[in-house]
Amino acid sequence: MKRVSELGEFLKAKRAAVSPEAVGLPAVGNPRRVPGLRREEVALLASVSVDHYTRLEQGRVSAASENLLAGIARALRLTAAEHEYLRMLVQTRPRRGRYDEPEVGAPLRDLLAALTAPALVLGPRTDVLAWNAGAAALFLDFAEIPVAQRALVRMVFLEPRIRGLFVNWHQVAAEAVDRLRMAAARAPGDPRLTRLVGELSVHDADFRRWWGGHGVRTLAGGRKHLRHPVVGELELDWQVLQVLTAQDQTMLAYTAPEGSPSHEALRILSSWNADAPVLRPTPEAEHDGM
Question: How far apart are CA 159 and CA 176, in angstroms?
Fold first, then answer.
């Protein structure tokens, strides 16, 4: 993803989504040549010159102040995630060298093994780096998936066993695309992430449409509705735990309110797969998978 082009497309998409009336401006010029706000209207609302905003949208500004970006965020009514994304597009520079997948440390693997709740560890590209027995029972044994294909967002689209679990698949998948775009902004120039976006764009029309919408969101908790082939309907809360000792790793844990049918179903799954080991790709396997 070329950052200059992405910055311009992102700002254009967000301009188009805001009507003049929504921000207290007269809808002069009817019909309007462009949907939403014009560049000069964004500049007015952000208290910046039209020329400066235009150069920013065209990628001809090498840096932007926090005040300027905050003004644009207010003008375009960006969410906190979209504001962060704008900041990363403008200020983050491509990393030099390899984008190695972080290894999961032994203490974190021990924590996974000790948890009865399904849990897994994701890398910066949503790669599943480690998982416990509960996660294998809930989703699948990720060891069956080639290492290079273990991105969770990829499996949501292209792995039938994962895709078929989600009752509201379209919502889950669209949100996954938004998170992938945020991940791409955090790691500009990552060739594996670029290949992942390309692969999903080729194979899935929904992915192409959602990627073209320029939505972004951060990884946060929520509730997922699943239909499991063994225990049936599940409503699970999922929590995000940042691994402070490994900046690029995130743990996801899935729980259900105690006493609920879903809690009992998780208990059954845990008993059914109690002896499954905690697994993770070895550095050698990851290398071979590429």
Answer: 14
Bridge-partner residues for 253, per DSSP? 119, 239
Tokens encoding 27: 């809808």
What does the pLDDT read at residue 179?
93
* pTM score of the predicted model: 0.84
Determine the pLDDT at residue 248.
Answer: 82
pLDDT at 33 over 80: no
Task: Tell me the C-alpha distance between 62 and 90, whole Å.
Answer: 7
Q: Give, for 196, the enclosing helix (H) or strand (E).
A: helix 191-203
Task: Please count the residues of the chain.
Answer: 290
Top pLDDT among 91 and 49 is at: 49
Q: What is the set of domains in the chain, with CATH numbers?
A: 3-91 (1.10.260.40), 106-289 (3.30.450.180)
Average pLDDT over residues 180-198: 89
CA–CA gap between residue 17 and residue 54 (Å, rounded):
18
Please say whether the beta carbons of 185 and 4 come within 8 A: no
